[in-house]
C-alpha cells in the first residue's frame, strides 16, 4: 500500500470510528458489534504504525497516550465556571421564578425552561479550536482549574474532533465527567481483587480517576460525560435557546443527557422534578437534583449573574439524606494558622452509604446558633457532599440532665498557650504560633506538600516521628537530617532513607512562587504567591515590601498585605527563612526588570509543552519570565513561540496549524544562552 492509499484509508477509518462512537455514546444506539469495532480500530492502529507521520492528535488511537505527569498545570478559565444557586423546596423554586419576573417583566409567559438531571460528578471544560480538542481543565475554584487534557482524551464519550465540516474557531464545551454505577461496581471489584481500598461512591471514583497522573489509569476507569453548557465560544455558536445550542453540540458528537427537555412555568418545573425523583433509583448514574435554566438566551443575557451564580438558573436539590445519632463529644483541632475548629465525635451511623463518626461544627457561633449540646441526639446530613454536617439537635430526645454546653477552651489543647478570639470574627486562635506542636506539624506538612516544596515521602506520619524525636521543629530542620537519623525511624531501611534524603536535596531546586506558598503565609495561596513573584521578581523585595507596595499586586487587599508584612516581621519566621536559604534553597532569579532585558523573549508570549531534559517546565517558565516573557498555557494566534520538548501533544499540533514558531529544546537553549541583561 502506498502512502497516499494509506492516508486515504486512515481518514476513512477515522470517520467510521467517530461515527460509531457517536452512535454508541451520544445516541445510545450501537450500530456494530464490539468485535467489528475492534477490527476497524486495529486496522487503523496497524496503518498508523506503518506510517507514523500520518498520526494526528485527534486520531481515535491517541486516546491513551502520553507519559505520566509529575503534576497538573494550572489553567485560568477564559470565562469563569460559576456555581448554581440551590432550591430545597417548591417555595424556593417559586421565589426563583418570581425574581425572574421582577427583573424581566416582558419575558414570554409561561416561562420556558430547559430541564435536565443534575449529574453528581466532576465539572470539566473542553476547549475545541477549529473543531479539534486542544485542552481540558477541571473547574477548580471557578477561576483557576487543572489541566487534565491527557486524561480527558481517554474518555471515549468526549470527541477528539467535532463532527462538523464547518468548525468554529473556538468552542468551549462544559459538562460533567461521571462514572456509571456499573462501571463503579466493576472498578471496586478490581480494587478489592488487587488488595487495594475500594472507592466510597461513584462521584469520588470519577474525580479520582480524572485526576490520575498516569492517563493509562484513567483510561481503565470507564468514565462517561454529558455536556450542560459552554464557556468561551466564537460568534454564531450559541443559538436562540439553550436547548437548541445543546442539540447543536449533540449533532457535533458531544453527548447530552437524553432526559433534557423543555418545561413551562412553575408547574412544569415541579412536575419534571417529581418525575426525576421517581426515576432516580432506576438510573445507572447518580444525580443529586435537577437543573432548570431560562431557555431563551436573550433573557439569560439580560438577567446576568451575581458574584457566584447565574440569575437565570437554579438547582432544585433532592431532599438530603439524613440520620439520627448521638453526639458523644466535641473536640478541638488546631490548624496550621492556629485556628481552633470544633469537631463533633459521633456514635458511628450510616448516612448515604457512608459510615460517619465525625463532622465539623465550623465555629463556636455555629454551635450556639444551632444550640448543639454534648450528649444530644443530632441530625446528620449528607446532601451530595462528602463532608457531613450536623443540622441540629433532636430536641424531643434531649434529656437536660445528660447534656452539657460546649465551651471553647481558654488554653490551646495542644500547647497550653492562650486562646484569643479575633475581633468582629467567629475565629478563635491559638497564640502559640510555631511554639505550638499542632501548628508546627501542620506547617511542616504544608511545607513538604506536593504543591509547595514537594518533598516526596515526607508525609504526616514521617513528620510526626521526626518531631517526636526532636529532630525537626521548623521547615529548615528538614535540610539538616542525616542518613544515621533516618535509618533509626520505624519502617525505614537503607533504601527508603536514601530515597527521602534525595527528595529533600531535590526540593532545594524550586521556584519563587512555590517557596512563597510553602512558607504558609496567612491568605497567600498558589495564585497570590504567583502574583507576588511576578510583580516583584525578587524575594528580598517581597519580604521588605510595605503594605502599600504589596497592595499594588493584583488581588492583594489591605488585610492580606498586612498579613504578609506581619509574617516577615516575626523573629522566628526570619530565622527559619534565613535557615532555608542558607541550606541552599534556590530558584531561577531574574537578571533585570523585563523592560531592560536584551533577550529575544522580552515582551513575547511563550507556551511550554512536552518534557524538557535540561530543566523542569517550572524552571523554564521562571527563566522566561525573568527575561520578560509572558508564559501562557494555551496556543493562539497571539503566541510568539512554542517551546516543544519530548511528547509535546496537542499544543504542538495547534502551533503547526497556526504557523506559530516552534522551538525544540536545543533552539530554546541557544536563544536562552544568547540573552543578556
TrEMBL record:
Keywords: DNA damage, DNA repair, DNA replication, Ligase, Magnesium, Manganese, Metal-binding, NAD, Zinc. PROSITE patterns: BRCT, DNA_LIGASE_N1, DNA_LIGASE_N2. It catalyses: NAD(+) + (deoxyribonucleotide)n-3'-hydroxyl + 5'-phospho-(deoxyribonucleotide)m = (deoxyribonucleotide)n+m + AMP + beta-nicotinamide D-nucleotide. The active site is at residue 118. Its cofactor is Mg(2+); Mn(2+). Its EC number is 6.5.1.2. Residues 596-677 form the BRCT domain. NAD(+) binds at residues 34-38, 83-84, 116, 139, 176, 293, 317. GO terms for molecular function: DNA binding; DNA ligase (NAD+) activity; metal ion binding. GO terms for cellular component: cytosol. InterPro entries: BRCT_dom, BRCT_dom_sf, DisA/LigA_HHH, DNA_ligase, DNA_ligase_AS, DNA_ligase_CS, DNAligase_adenylation, DNAligase_N. GO terms for biological process: DNA repair; DNA replication. Zn(2+) binds at residues 412, 415, 436. Belongs to the NAD-dependent DNA ligase family. LigA subfamily. DNA ligase that catalyzes the formation of phosphodiester linkages between 5'-phosphoryl and 3'-hydroxyl groups in double-stranded DNA using NAD as a coenzyme and as the energy source for the reaction. It is essential for DNA replication and repair of damaged DNA. PANTHER family: CHROMOSOME TRANSMISSION FIDELITY FACTOR 18, DNA LIGASE. This is DNA ligase. It comes from Sulfurivirga caldicuralii.
